[in-house]
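Message: I would love a firmer grasp of how sequence relates to backbone shape in proteins. Thank you; the sequence and its tokens follow:
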Amino acid sequence: MPLTPDQIAEAAADLYQAEKTGEQIGLISLRFPGLGLQDAYDIQAGLVAAKLKAGRKQIGWKIGLTSRAMQDALKIDTPDSGVLFDDMLFDDGAEVPKDRFIQPRIEAEIAFIMGSDLSMKPSRAEVIGATEAVVPSLEILDTRILRKDPETGAIRVVSDTIADNAANAGIVLGTARHSPDAVDLRWAGAIVTRNGIVEETGLGAAVLDDPATAIIWLAERLATQGDQIRAGEIVLSGSFIRPIEAVPGSRIEADFGAFGHVGIGFA
């Protein structure tokens, strides 16, 4: 049975409070057994509305769970999405202040900067034509929900993550800019280090075989909500590496070779 409006509002308010205080809440999927994906997106919408009301500005979208490995781990067959806000944007090479996040992790991705609005059912050619530039990027993940319930041992599921704005917390863009039709996005990838030690490597092909396919998926999902990807927005196309824990004192660097470089530190 779908959640009631009051239940959706309650969960969204709890997530908003958790982000402000840095204190995680329990699994929403335990609070509301049978929590569906649409329920989760409805909670996310309530959370987004609260942030917009507080004065934050939307700057784009994130797409997650695009790799087969992550989908298999969560026993799903579809990506998820969340909203990017202005206060999530960090400069390349910056240092994140201590206690800004709860349990931050890092993913390496290809970001699309949109030059024009995208139709609601675009072809790949339309995605490339609407994209002003593709950029090396890092996504900072965080969780305002416990990863594991201490009493039952239940772990966070995809509906928890979606409700929590797809676990998005920050974004770092590299300074390099490339025309999307001048790069083989399937072969664009990175060597990702933490404090100089290689932690992960990956290629764009891990993202639904082509990062542009992720943009198509998002456009079609937004169309079901009467929304669309717009000019000027940043879209994170999905990670091609497993998340890397960003413990205090970490410096995460992603070397994309000829595609560019991007890094972030954590106090």
